[in-house]
Amino acid sequence: MSESPFAQVGPILFEKGYSPIPIMPGNKVPGLMVGDEWRMFKGWNEFCVERPSQFQINQWAKWQDAGVGIACGRGLICIDIDQEEIIEPLLAILPVSYVQKKGRKGISLFYQGNTDAIRSKNYRTPDRVGLVDLLAEGKQTVLPPSIHPDTGEPYYWWTDETLLDVGLAALNELPNDIADQIGEVLRAFGYDPDGDRAADPAGSDHPDTLSSHTSNFFRKLNEDALARIEAWAPKLKLPKGRFLGRVYRAVAPWRASGSGRAMSRRSANLSISPGGVEDFGTGESFTALNVVMKTLQIPDSELDAAVQWLGGCLAYDFSPNITLTMGPKTLAILAEREARERGEEPPVRSAVEEALTPPPHPEWHPTPTPAVAERPTGGDLTAYAAAQPSAPAAAPAEATVGLVEEEEVNAPATPPAPSMAELEALCRGIPGLVGELVEWMACSSSSPSRPCALGPALLWVGTIAGRHQAGPTDLRTNLNVVTLAPPGYGKDHARQALYRLATKTGLFRFMAPENFLSDSALRKTIEQNPVMMSMMDEFGGFIGKIMDRRAGAHQSNLRHMILQLFTTSNSVYTGAAAAQEQATPIHQPCFSIYGTTTPHDFWPSMSGRGVGDGFLPRWLVLPISGKPLLDQPVTQPYQPPDRIVEASRAVFKLSRRGANLPDMASQPVVNPIVAEWGEDGFEAFRWYRGHFAKCSEEASEDSKVLWTRSIEIMLRIGHIVAIGINPERPMLTDELVDWAGRLTELSTKSCIVEMKDRLASNDKQAEYLFVRRLIKEAGQAGITTVALKQQINGLFDNARYESIIKQLQDANQVSGRMGTGPRGGRPTFRYYAAA
User: Ranges of Pro residues compositional bias (predicted)?
Assistant: First the structure.
């Protein structure tokens, strides 16, 4: 397989100090490869102000057929001339360009310059024919040897010198007024500097008031606004607004979230940079005036009010030679503002004027209050609780005949069971190595299941980075995951795929045995290698042995050891001494377990004991339901792809900063790589911490404990994915924390639902729950007495059966009545679960 264009030149460009970026094959736009699928690269223009990392360059170089582009900005400018006849006149005024490239037509010239003063600009004729593109900050251009999408041939260098040879400092420099000089030359080719406009000022049909303005005024207003973003963007109080270098990022409040998120949970996809304004969530571009009008909810008919506001922020002096035609609403708005500034009561608006005022946006209102009310800046959860909107009062229940037991009135509601669609959605589009692993393991099977692949993917990355990576709260990367799936779901495929990957990468030493018969066997394994992961099939049987009250000391102690290894991963596990064996301290053990079993085997084995002592809360539980996909086309190779092999080795080596010495249980890792909070990541962490605490308060007494470790599990998951994105500098961003939080909440809620249906503290309660579950699983059609007894299959005698049925009916959990089956037919007596 030949190297991609990016692999050929991207690393060299990076060494020269440039910002190379991957380009989608057969296209001119930046792209990301997720699995085997190319997607639009949202946020690529951040590399115009900050270079990518070495790890990102290495990853992009592994993507098949990736083209190569270069992000302009940071002093790099490209002049892209579209028309052949324009080349000579422009070369007459431009400095000599030592580096030039060609594609299908025209030519591109590379220079250095002051990109704070020289801004990107498109030169067009009145008929929108492209003449020249001045590419500065916020823009990119495709480089050789990428393939041109129109010709199918590679771009090529037109000069002997290339950007691979010439650094930025060696390029000729452009003067600050180069944009005006180019405009004057292009007059002869149909360009009208006075008639040119960057974009429609209001983004729609222009109202009559626009006729008195020159387009040159709007062009200058928008250009000045992009040159002085700090003068107006923060004043809009956009949600999550903050500067990243010279780029201002925020949430676009005028549109709803594509995924249905609340405003506080949305990503800051609106980018306001000197190169322009773009919403990465929709791909739309705006002018500064567009943003002001949309944010402040100013209709097109009141364009002048937006001009006044933006011009005021930029210290414009609206002298009489600029006539602004104002309608009555605009005049009323300005009159109210002036009255308030004088300390007077604003004039009373008529009913007609009030009726013409547009209603506020239903989702977001620009007010001086913090944009994220549910994420207070203080650490006290009381502040969080106060920031939450009060719950709507419950509608009064209809009068019922008979007594209602107090327990039923006051019992906390059980959360709805998470759907399979929710879990499947969370397993798609995961960034970095974890996502690559999930796609490969799922799509290399004819019965693909991403949820079955998620657990092994998380544990693999967490293990090969183990001990040498620490989260921002000093949590480590060990994690326990159990996947609960019906029989025939192909749970073994992902496990065997991971064994093949461990063999191919040369990292099989991190794979622990599939079972342990005693605590001493586990301790000796960890003493030899403190970083290991064990993948256990038929995990319900293992849980049953270590949870059994009649189990021997070796098996009972095994449960306690697993508990302690999980919590001492950032300190030391001292263990317990025996008569024939001395305890040996194990520093920073990173031991993880991935188990697969069926729900019917897992929950009866777990018992209430595993909940009460904190064993179950330390697990991420992935519940899979429904029928598996069968006979699907296999789209990934059976053997691990080279890019995944190399990415795994990179995580292993870069986490250890290049060292290849084996981990020793007797010696701690003194200086691990500490993950940082990325954009709004800490605020997301605080929100989920309060959210989980509130869930715990509202939960029943027996399920409160399940929320105690949720925030810890969430941070471990997010940290592992961040390592797979960039092991040299992992960052927990808002998006990562939010994804991990939703996955953890799904796990916890599913445990609460299953506990109520399946978890028993003794044998009699287990029989009771078993019968109730059989009736519940029959659904709306109910179940006949004969069918119910057939499924019980002699597990207990008839007297016990009758006793359980009576208890269920007395508790209003089941009812018996005449009814027909799912296919109709003669009515028979059936049992139905309560709604």
Answer: 357-369
- Please report whether residue 381 resides in a domain: no
**How many angstroms separate the first and last alpha carbons of the chain?**
59
Give the residue from 551, 418, 542, 553 showing the smallest Cα distance to 482: 542
> What angle, rounded to 10 degrees, do the helices at 328-341 and 303-313 form?
40
Q: Are residues 660 and 793 in the same domain?
A: no
Cα–chain center distance at 486: 29
Q: Give dist(CA 166, CA 121) in Å, integer.
A: 25
Cα gap 55→58, rounded to integer Å: 5
Nearest-angstrom CA–CA distance, 750 and 55? 37
The pLDDT tens digits of the residues spanning 703-732 come to: 888 899 999 999 999 999 999 999 999 999
343 plus 428 within the same structural domain: no
Strand-pair partners of 134: 79, 121
Query: For the chain, how many structural domains are there in total?
Result: 4
Q: What is the pLDDT of residue 334?
A: 57
What average pLDDT score do residues 679-689 get? Answer: 91
| DSSP classification of residue 216 | H
Amino acid at 387: A
User: Do 265 and 120 fall within a single domain?
Assistant: no
Domain with residue 87: its CATH number is 3.30.2250
pTM here? 0.60
- The CA distances from residue 241 to 224, 287, 676, in Å, are 20, 17, 20
Residues 176 and 229 in one domain: no
* SS3 state of residue 243: strand
Please give the distance of CA 202 from its chain centroid, rounded to a whole number. 32
- Find, among 256, 218, 234, the residue nearest to 361 by Cα: 256
Domain-ending residue, one of 326, 354, 382: 354
Q: What is the pLDDT of residues 777-792, one digit of tens each?
A: 888 889 988 889 888 8
H-helix segments, 137-247: 178-185, 215-227
Q: Mean pLDDT lowest for which of 188-202, 274-288, 536-550, 666-680?
A: 188-202
d(CA 715, CA 740): 7
Q: How many CB atoms lie within 10 A of CB 411?
A: 10
Nearest CA among 717, 661, 649 for reference residue 501: 649
Instruction: Classify each residue of 502-528 as buried b or exposed e, where b means 16 or more C-beta atoms within 10 Å of its C-beta.
Output: bebbebeebbbeeebeebbebbebbbe
C-alpha to C-alpha distance for 426 and 421, rounded to whole angstroms: 9
Residues 491 and 589 in one domain: yes
**Per this entry, what is the length of the chain?**
835
The answer to whether position 12 is within a domain reads yes
Distance of CA 167 to the CA centre of its chain: 36
Residue holding tokens 């007395």? 810
Same domain, 243 and 328: yes
Give the closest residue to 291 by CA, choosing from 368, 246, 238. Answer: 238
Q: What angle do CA 738, 741, 745 make, to 5 degrees?
A: 140
pLDDT higher than threshold 80 for residue 360: no
Q: What is the pLDDT of residue 323?
A: 43
Residues 6 or more apart in contact with residue 258 via CB below 8 angstroms: 281, 282
Closest CA to 196 of 209, 208, 179: 179
Tell me, what CATH number does 820's domain have? 1.10.10.10
pLDDT in tens, 425-478: 999 999 999 999 999 999 999 999 999 999 999 999 999 999 999 999 999 999
Phi and psi at residue 98, to the nearest 5°: -80, -20
Q: Which two tokens stand for residue 562?
A: 């697993």
The amino acid that residue 520 corresponds to is: S
Category of 203 on φ-ψ map: left (φ > 0), alpha (ψ -120 to 50) or beta: left
Q: Which domain holds residue 823?
A: 763-833
Question: Looking at the structure, do residues 225 and 174 belong to the same domain, yes or no?
Answer: no
- C-alpha atoms less than 13 angstroms from C-alpha of 23 in its C-beta half-sphere: 28
Q: Is residue 487 part of a domain?
A: yes
Boundary (domain end) residue, out of 335, 354, 373: 354
Q: Is residue 776 part of a domain?
A: yes
Q: How far from chain centre, in Å, is Cα 439?
A: 16
